[in-house]
Amino acid sequence: MTQKIAFVASRASVAQTARAALIGRYGDVPLSQAEVIVALGGDGFMLHTLHDTQELDVPVYGMNRGTIGFLMNEYHEGELQERLAAAEEAVINPLVMQATHLDGRTSRALAINEVSLLRAGPQAAKLRITIDGRQRMEELVCDGALVATPAGSTAYNYSAHGPILPIGADVLALTPIAAFRPRRWRGALLPKGATVRFDVLEVDKRPVMADADGKSHRNVARVEVTSNPKITHRILFDPGHGLEERLISEQFN
Q1: Which end of the chain has a smaller Cβ tally under 10 Å, C or N?
Q2: Model-level pTM?
Q3: Do 177 and 118 meet the contact criterion of CB atoms below 8 Å apart?
Q4: Gap between the Cα atoms of 79 and 94, Å rounded
């Protein structure tokens, strides 16, 4: 069965060229009429597409026209309708970040990969960590800390020596970034429904910024992070190359 496809592409010339070629071959419909969205670019563009189309409840099939392409399928122009019909679907829930800034205002953002707190000055950050209303760490001296979903566990979290999580795991990774005190702390695995709160200590002396999937919020005093099961993102992968398989394979490379 032929599906109505909306093609979207990053600004990179290779992605725009691919979009033009695919539209010439398969046609194109507006996003509001699409049965499937084909995203052309890299992982960053895939995250951007998922954020922008989350209200549509339409699956997104990515083809790599970027660098790494962990969330993407290989790019081929041929037999696209057949690939879409055979694709496996992974459903992921984003994190909700609510940040309170020094001036008292609040900001909210969604993150498919991770929410991270990062020092914004020359001195290390000092963070207090509370889980579900219970203080778990009085003071973490570090360059930052992050909360990652299973889908995002191979991204910034993995670079910070956090664990890779199976896509079906109902857990989140809490990972320090360059922890200085306690020096040996490597982070924690938390239930998916946990609420993580970071309080920034000595906030005037040690400014901190919060980042949700690459979107920065500066001068934060407190950040709360929770998973939202009511919001779903649907990603399509070629058979045998789904997100679960990629997460397992990554641990053996």
Answers
A1: C
A2: 0.85
A3: yes
A4: 31
